[in-house]
Amino acid sequence: MIFERKHIISTKDFSRGEIDLILEQAAKLEPYARQGRASILKDRIVATLFYEPSTRTRLSFDAAIKRLGGTTIGFDTSTSSSVAKGETLADTIRIVESYADAIVLRHPREGAARMASEISSVPVINAGDGAGHHPTQTLLDLYTMKKECCNGREIGDLNVAIVGDLRYGRTVHSLSYALSLYGANLSFVSPDQLKMPPSIISYLKKKGSRVKETASIQDALGEADVLYMTRIQKERFPDPSEYLKVAGSYRITPEMLDGVKNGMIIMHPLPRVDEIAPEVDGTQYARYFRQSFYGVPVRMAVLSLVMGVEV
Predict the structure, then answer these.
(1) What's this model's pTM, rounded to 2 decimal places?
(2) For the chain, what is the HEC assignment?
(3) Which superfamily does CATH assign the domain made up of 11-133+295-306 to?
(4) Of 17, 117, 156, 235, whose CB count within 10 A is highest?
């Protein structure tokens, strides 16, 4: 039970074999995610501490816990907890670890989940920490690729184009680290102000990934098996004027999809703003709503494994 009581903080902490194990567990649990309830987490309590707004991550974790037969405690905004009175994250973790069997934490400060894991005696699952990491989002992204795109191929055979906010996007940072384990071809599409950090590019190349950077989405579309769109994250910009310079840089419309590969899929971690036209939703390429659902079986897999249950 390699995951029992293990903290889930960053995809950089995983081996390819460990990721494959989680995805295999997710496939076994997917029927329960669609309907019914298992008893894997019967009598277990999971604390969900969300210091930042969230819809998909928070609700899919909540659904995952309940589909596994567990119960939840926690808060969905820091204003509804003693944080509003000045309580530190460290003190909150020390208190909550005595109430729950695991902690799911989302926090606006990069490194917060790692710090919490160094304090907590129960597993901490990072649900997003600032511009840092979002490992369970990455796991559901990989699961989506396997289910919707691979068609018998390995993830490493895919050409993945990642578009938008690559500087501040914790989702794309985590995904890039994981894809490097599989050897996938990566195309990064962004304005100069939002390019993937050089440290990550260097890491990926050292891992043997083939990386291309461009400011033109058309350069990446023709070869892409996966088009991974992201929004420009206004909340991550320290200077609002800098955000206005890049807002709306990329937008996918049905007309742009003429000539793309047969079987190409469009993914998005959501929420979207205007980077995917609503008319794309009905095309054969759209997978972002299925992608969002896959968060439930994947998070069920993570929760069950850190609780020491392999199905």
Answers:
(1) 0.91
(2) CCCCCCCECCHHHCCHHHHHHHHHHHHHHHHHHHCCCCCCCCCCEEEEEECCCCCHHHHHHHHHHHHCCCEEEEECCHHHCHHHHCCCHHHHHHHHCCCCCEEEEEECCCCHHHHHHHHCCCCEEEEEECCCCCHHHHHHHHHHHHHHCCCCCCHHHCEEEEECCCCCCHHHHHHHHHHHHHCCEEEEECCHHHCCCHHHHHHHHHCCCEEEEECCHHHHHCCCCEEEECCCCHHHCCCHHHHHHHCCCCCECHHHHCCCCCCCEEECCCCCCCCECHHHHHCCCECHHHHHHCHHHHHHHHHHHHCCCCC
(3) Aspartate/ornithine carbamoyltransferase (3.40.50.1370)
(4) 117
Delimit the domains of the chain by residue range.
Answer: 11-133+295-306, 150-286
Query: Which architecture, in CATH terms, is 150-286?
Result: 3-Layer(aba) Sandwich (3.40)
